[in-house]
Write a structure and sequence with these properties.
The strands form 4 sheets. This protein has a 3-stranded antiparallel beta sheet with strand order 7-8-9, with helices on one face. It has a two-stranded antiparallel sheet with strand order 1-2. Strands 3-5 form a two-stranded parallel sheet. By secondary structure, the chain is α+β, with helices and mostly antiparallel strands. It contains 7 helices and 9 strands; from the N terminus they run ββααβαβββααβββαα. The model has no long low-confidence stretch (mean pLDDT 90). α6 runs antiparallel to α7.
Length: 197
Amino acid sequence: MRQKMKLVHGAGINDADYAVAGKNHRTGKQWMCPYYNKWKGMLRRCYSKKYQEKYPTYEGCSVCEDWLIFSNFKSWMESQNWEGKDLDKDLLFEGNKVYSPDKCVFVSSVLNAFVTDSGRARGKYMIGVIFHKRDKNFQSQCNNPITKSHDYLGFFTSELEAHLKWKKRKLELIGELLQHGYIEDIRIYNSLKTKYS
């Protein structure tokens, strides 16, 4: 009787014809195929309840049927500029919840940090805005992914003014990211310009 195949994170089929993980007998270190590592991480984000309890923004996310088979995902990944980059599902299509070849792109960690909005840590104010109780004004600030510092953009009497200053700085930073080679795909550039305009 044929043994039933165990699904990866209850959804994915590992059809690799080689070992995707193991232990180096010489060094004793664990290793994992980089294609399998990205694929398994994607499945974990979509189908692990434990992971989604920790990162609730992934609730409701899924993987397209084609990519539930490892070899299909691997073939797509081999055609991408992926080394040292993160798999992103919603940079090209804001709000996208499905990992698929037409919606996903590999991005640098610098670019990934640039688009993270830190909603839970931010609190009740608009993104890029902090309220100072003592002075009763709003400060605008923006994380600079290139210098890895905070750009302080000034104080404003309204939350909206402070937020709009943040948006203006984000648009400027898109140009700087392009200039420094962090944006390699014109689709990403156009998507970011639309997002922050």
